[in-house]
Amino acid sequence: MFDEGGGSGLLFYGAIGLLLLALHLWAIVQVVRSRSSPGMKALWIALLVLFPLLGVFNWFVMGPRAESST
């Protein structure tokens, strides 16, 4: 039914795409739930939408951190 090896590449790249989509959606939810000002939230969401991979990476590196309870 499928060529040998052809389906595995599709499965691999599909899984990577789903992982990236999940990270992207998680980052957007974290922006919305953060305590940042509405302007900063809008800026972060715009960055995430316009530059998906770069935006998610930047959010992980530079986004607000949860305050520890220690």
Automatic annotation (TrEMBL):
GO cellular component, one term: plasma membrane
Membrane topology summary: Multi-pass membrane protein
Keywords recorded for this protein, A-Z: Cell membrane, Membrane, Transmembrane, Transmembrane helix
Name of the protein this chain belongs to: Phospholipase_D-nuclease N-terminal
Domain named Cardiolipin synthase N-terminal: residues: 23-63
Location in or out of the cell: Cell membrane
Bilayer-crossing regions: 12-31, 43-61
InterPro entries, per the entry: CLS_N
Upper lineage: Bacteria, Pseudomonadati, Pseudomonadota, Gammaproteobacteria, Pseudomonadales
UniProt main location, coarse: membrane
